[in-house]
Amino acid sequence: MSEAPATDTPIRPAELAAYLAARMCHDFISPASAIVSGLDLLEDPTAQDMRDDAMGLIGSSARKLADLLAFTRVAFGASASAEVFDARELERLAQGVFAHIRAELDWQVEPPGVSKPVARTLLNLAQMAGAALPTGGVARVRVVEEGASIAIAIEATGPRARLRPEVLGGLRGEGPGDGLHGHWVQARYVNLFVTDAGGRVFADVAEEKVTLAATIPN
Questions:
Q1: Which of 70, 98, 105, 201 has the fewest CB atoms within 10 Å around its CB?
Q2: CATH number at residue 43
Q3: pTM for the whole structure
Q4: Residues 6+ away with beta carbon under 8 Å from 116
Q5: DSSP code, position 152
Protein backbone atom coordinates (compact mmCIF):
# COMPACT_ATOMS: atom_id res chain seq x y z
CA MET A 1 0.00 0.00 0.00
CA SER A 2 1.30 3.44 -0.87
CA GLU A 3 1.05 6.31 1.53
CA ALA A 4 -0.76 9.37 0.28
CA PRO A 5 2.01 11.86 1.12
CA ALA A 6 1.04 15.31 2.36
CA THR A 7 2.18 17.63 -0.41
CA ASP A 8 0.18 20.34 1.35
CA THR A 9 -1.04 22.39 -1.59
CA PRO A 10 -2.22 25.61 0.12
CA ILE A 11 -5.97 26.18 0.31
CA ARG A 12 -7.65 29.21 1.82
CA PRO A 13 -10.20 28.45 4.59
CA ALA A 14 -12.93 30.37 2.73
CA GLU A 15 -12.24 28.34 -0.42
CA LEU A 16 -12.42 25.05 1.48
CA ALA A 17 -15.66 26.13 3.17
CA ALA A 18 -17.20 27.04 -0.20
CA TYR A 19 -16.30 23.69 -1.74
CA LEU A 20 -17.60 21.78 1.30
CA ALA A 21 -20.87 23.73 1.23
CA ALA A 22 -21.28 23.00 -2.48
CA ARG A 23 -20.61 19.30 -1.86
CA MET A 24 -23.24 19.12 0.88
CA CYS A 25 -25.81 20.96 -1.24
CA HIS A 26 -25.16 18.51 -4.06
CA ASP A 27 -25.79 15.56 -1.72
CA PHE A 28 -28.98 17.06 -0.29
CA ILE A 29 -30.59 18.46 -3.44
CA SER A 30 -31.51 15.12 -5.00
CA PRO A 31 -33.68 13.76 -2.14
CA ALA A 32 -35.08 17.24 -1.43
CA SER A 33 -36.12 17.65 -5.07
CA ALA A 34 -37.68 14.18 -5.03
CA ILE A 35 -39.79 15.15 -2.01
CA VAL A 36 -41.03 18.24 -3.88
CA SER A 37 -41.84 16.11 -6.93
CA GLY A 38 -43.87 13.77 -4.73
CA LEU A 39 -45.78 16.67 -3.22
CA ASP A 40 -46.50 18.04 -6.68
CA LEU A 41 -48.01 14.69 -7.66
CA LEU A 42 -50.22 14.70 -4.58
CA GLU A 43 -51.52 18.15 -5.50
CA ASP A 44 -52.11 17.28 -9.17
CA PRO A 45 -55.82 16.44 -9.63
CA THR A 46 -55.02 14.51 -12.81
CA ALA A 47 -52.53 12.23 -11.04
CA GLN A 48 -54.58 10.87 -8.16
CA ASP A 49 -54.00 7.32 -9.41
CA MET A 50 -50.30 7.88 -8.55
CA ARG A 51 -50.96 8.84 -4.95
CA ASP A 52 -49.37 5.68 -3.54
CA ASP A 53 -46.30 6.16 -5.75
CA ALA A 54 -46.04 9.77 -4.62
CA MET A 55 -46.24 8.81 -0.95
CA GLY A 56 -43.57 6.15 -1.49
CA LEU A 57 -41.29 8.66 -3.21
CA ILE A 58 -41.76 11.20 -0.42
CA GLY A 59 -41.12 8.61 2.29
CA SER A 60 -37.95 7.11 0.76
CA SER A 61 -36.54 10.52 -0.14
CA ALA A 62 -37.22 11.92 3.33
CA ARG A 63 -35.41 8.95 4.90
CA LYS A 64 -32.44 9.47 2.57
CA LEU A 65 -32.27 13.17 3.36
CA ALA A 66 -32.48 12.53 7.12
CA ASP A 67 -29.76 9.85 6.90
CA LEU A 68 -27.47 12.17 4.93
CA LEU A 69 -28.01 15.07 7.34
CA ALA A 70 -27.25 12.92 10.39
CA PHE A 71 -24.12 11.54 8.71
CA THR A 72 -22.90 14.94 7.54
CA ARG A 73 -23.31 16.47 10.99
CA VAL A 74 -20.59 14.17 12.32
CA ALA A 75 -18.49 13.56 9.20
CA PHE A 76 -18.16 17.22 8.23
CA GLY A 77 -19.43 19.25 11.17
CA ALA A 78 -18.57 19.89 14.79
CA SER A 79 -21.40 17.64 16.08
CA ALA A 80 -22.10 19.77 19.15
CA SER A 81 -19.47 19.36 21.89
CA ALA A 82 -18.92 15.61 21.61
CA GLU A 83 -15.27 14.58 21.74
CA VAL A 84 -15.73 10.80 22.00
CA PHE A 85 -18.09 8.88 19.72
CA ASP A 86 -19.72 5.51 20.33
CA ALA A 87 -18.69 3.09 17.58
CA ARG A 88 -22.25 1.69 17.46
CA GLU A 89 -23.61 5.16 16.68
CA LEU A 90 -20.99 5.63 13.97
CA GLU A 91 -22.05 2.32 12.42
CA ARG A 92 -25.68 3.47 12.44
CA LEU A 93 -24.69 6.67 10.62
CA ALA A 94 -22.59 4.80 8.06
CA GLN A 95 -25.27 2.16 7.47
CA GLY A 96 -27.75 5.00 6.90
CA VAL A 97 -25.68 6.20 3.95
CA PHE A 98 -25.06 2.70 2.58
CA ALA A 99 -28.81 2.02 2.66
CA HIS A 100 -29.13 4.33 -0.35
CA ILE A 101 -26.26 3.04 -2.53
CA ARG A 102 -25.49 -0.27 -4.21
CA ALA A 103 -22.51 -1.26 -2.05
CA GLU A 104 -22.84 -3.13 1.25
CA LEU A 105 -21.05 -2.26 4.49
CA ASP A 106 -19.20 -4.82 6.61
CA TRP A 107 -18.44 -3.06 9.91
CA GLN A 108 -15.71 -4.52 12.15
CA VAL A 109 -14.70 -1.83 14.65
CA GLU A 110 -13.05 -3.07 17.85
CA PRO A 111 -12.77 0.08 20.03
CA PRO A 112 -16.10 0.90 21.71
CA GLY A 113 -15.40 4.64 21.47
CA VAL A 114 -13.13 6.82 19.34
CA SER A 115 -12.03 10.45 19.29
CA LYS A 116 -13.56 13.09 17.03
CA PRO A 117 -10.71 12.99 14.45
CA VAL A 118 -10.98 9.20 14.26
CA ALA A 119 -14.78 9.36 13.95
CA ARG A 120 -14.61 11.89 11.12
CA THR A 121 -11.92 9.92 9.31
CA LEU A 122 -13.80 6.65 9.70
CA LEU A 123 -17.09 8.01 8.35
CA ASN A 124 -15.55 9.89 5.46
CA LEU A 125 -13.35 7.01 4.33
CA ALA A 126 -16.31 4.64 4.60
CA GLN A 127 -18.41 6.90 2.39
CA MET A 128 -15.55 7.25 -0.09
CA ALA A 129 -15.19 3.45 -0.17
CA GLY A 130 -18.89 3.12 -0.96
CA ALA A 131 -18.54 5.65 -3.76
CA ALA A 132 -15.66 3.58 -5.15
CA LEU A 133 -18.15 0.75 -5.83
CA PRO A 134 -20.57 2.25 -8.37
CA THR A 135 -21.97 -1.14 -9.45
CA GLY A 136 -22.01 -2.74 -6.01
CA GLY A 137 -19.67 -4.72 -3.84
CA VAL A 138 -18.61 -4.77 -0.21
CA ALA A 139 -16.78 -2.13 1.82
CA ARG A 140 -15.11 -3.91 4.75
CA VAL A 141 -14.28 -1.56 7.59
CA ARG A 142 -11.74 -2.66 10.19
CA VAL A 143 -10.58 -0.53 13.10
CA VAL A 144 -8.13 -1.64 15.81
CA GLU A 145 -6.12 0.03 18.54
CA GLU A 146 -2.34 0.02 18.05
CA GLY A 147 -0.77 1.44 21.19
CA ALA A 148 -1.84 5.05 21.51
CA SER A 149 -3.13 5.16 17.92
CA ILE A 150 -6.12 3.91 15.99
CA ALA A 151 -5.60 2.05 12.71
CA ILE A 152 -8.36 2.21 10.11
CA ALA A 153 -8.38 -0.06 7.06
CA ILE A 154 -11.23 -0.15 4.55
CA GLU A 155 -11.26 -2.49 1.56
CA ALA A 156 -13.78 -1.77 -1.18
CA THR A 157 -14.06 -4.83 -3.40
CA GLY A 158 -16.37 -5.31 -6.35
CA PRO A 159 -16.70 -5.05 -10.14
CA ARG A 160 -15.40 -1.76 -11.55
CA ALA A 161 -14.03 -0.64 -8.19
CA ARG A 162 -12.13 2.57 -8.79
CA LEU A 163 -10.84 5.69 -7.07
CA ARG A 164 -11.12 8.97 -8.93
CA PRO A 165 -7.76 10.72 -9.53
CA GLU A 166 -8.99 13.86 -7.74
CA VAL A 167 -9.84 11.77 -4.65
CA LEU A 168 -6.37 10.28 -4.55
CA GLY A 169 -4.91 13.74 -5.08
CA GLY A 170 -6.99 15.18 -2.25
CA LEU A 171 -5.84 12.47 0.14
CA ARG A 172 -2.28 13.40 -0.78
CA GLY A 173 -2.93 17.06 -0.02
CA GLU A 174 -2.89 18.10 -3.66
CA GLY A 175 -5.19 20.49 -5.52
CA PRO A 176 -8.17 19.28 -7.58
CA GLY A 177 -6.52 19.63 -10.97
CA ASP A 178 -9.05 18.99 -13.73
CA GLY A 179 -11.17 16.70 -11.52
CA LEU A 180 -14.55 17.33 -9.93
CA HIS A 181 -14.27 19.56 -6.87
CA GLY A 182 -17.12 17.79 -5.10
CA HIS A 183 -15.17 14.53 -4.97
CA TRP A 184 -11.84 16.21 -4.32
CA VAL A 185 -12.90 18.38 -1.39
CA GLN A 186 -13.95 15.45 0.81
CA ALA A 187 -10.57 13.79 0.33
CA ARG A 188 -8.71 17.07 0.90
CA TYR A 189 -10.74 17.66 4.06
CA VAL A 190 -9.75 14.21 5.33
CA ASN A 191 -6.10 14.99 4.57
CA LEU A 192 -6.34 18.23 6.54
CA PHE A 193 -7.85 16.93 9.76
CA VAL A 194 -5.84 13.68 9.74
CA THR A 195 -2.54 15.54 9.42
CA ASP A 196 -3.69 18.16 11.95
CA ALA A 197 -4.31 15.30 14.40
CA GLY A 198 -0.79 13.95 13.83
CA GLY A 199 -1.91 11.01 11.68
CA ARG A 200 -1.36 9.68 8.19
CA VAL A 201 -3.69 8.59 5.42
CA PHE A 202 -3.06 5.94 2.77
CA ALA A 203 -4.65 4.74 -0.46
CA ASP A 204 -4.07 1.84 -2.83
CA VAL A 205 -5.85 0.85 -6.03
CA ALA A 206 -5.77 -2.67 -7.48
CA GLU A 207 -7.99 -4.65 -9.84
CA GLU A 208 -11.52 -4.66 -8.44
CA LYS A 209 -10.27 -3.38 -5.09
CA VAL A 210 -9.66 0.01 -3.48
CA THR A 211 -8.01 0.23 -0.08
CA LEU A 212 -8.23 3.30 2.13
CA ALA A 213 -6.43 3.46 5.46
CA ALA A 214 -5.30 5.83 8.17
CA THR A 215 -3.45 5.84 11.47
CA ILE A 216 -4.48 8.52 13.97
CA PRO A 217 -3.61 9.18 17.60
CA ASN A 218 -6.69 8.46 19.71
A1: 70
A2: 3.30.565.10
A3: 0.92
A4: 79, 82, 83, 84, 85
A5: E
